[in-house]
Amino acid sequence: MTHRDTTPSPGTSADRTERELREALAALAGGVPDATPDAYRTARGEWLRRERRRRLVLAVLVTVVFALATLIGLWVLNRAPAEPGVIFSGAGSPAAASLPRPHP
């Protein structure tokens, strides 16, 4: 077990600790940039510009996708054959005809 001296040494008083802490906090606070009076307004304006830009980009993207889907759909419909298919041609056996229609 070691013997510790209970008498305070000359450089470790509470005043010294308080002084060093005050100096450290002052140095830390000195590194923080001062806010200009219109800093909030400037930051808010930048944020609103970015938000408007995001919405504009999204609207353009949705419009482009919708237009592209419409054009592809029209192109596919235009590529369909002009002649009627087997189902609607009427050329089939009478046994394959649909239910008889009532005569008026």
Listing every helix as H and every strand as E from the N terminus to the C terminus, the arrangement reads: HH
Q: Give the uncertain stretches in residue-range form.
A: none
How much helix, percentage-wise, in residues? 40-55%
**What's the β-strand tally?**
0
**Helices and strands: which structural class?**
mainly alpha
Q: What form results from the Cα inertia axes?
A: rod-shaped
Major beta sheet summary: none
Radius of gyration: 42 Å
How many individual helices?
A: 2
Between the first and last Cα atoms, what is the distance in angstroms?
Answer: 121 Å
Bin the strand percentage: under 5%
Described by its quaternary structure, the protein is single chain
Transmembrane segments: 56-77
Keywords: Membrane, Transmembrane, Transmembrane helix
What keywords describe this structure?
104 residues, transmembrane helix, transmembrane, 0% strand, single chain, membrane, mainly alpha
Describe the structure.
The protein has helices at residues 14-30, 39-78. The protein has 104 residues and is mainly alpha-helical. The longest helix is centred in the middle third of the chain and has 40 residues, at 39-78.
Q: How are the elements arranged and paired?
A:
Layout: H1 14-30, H2 39-78
Transmembrane segments: 56-77
Keywords: Membrane, Transmembrane, Transmembrane helix
Brief description of this entry?
This protein is mainly α. The chain has helices at about 15-30, 40-80. It is built from two helices and no strands.
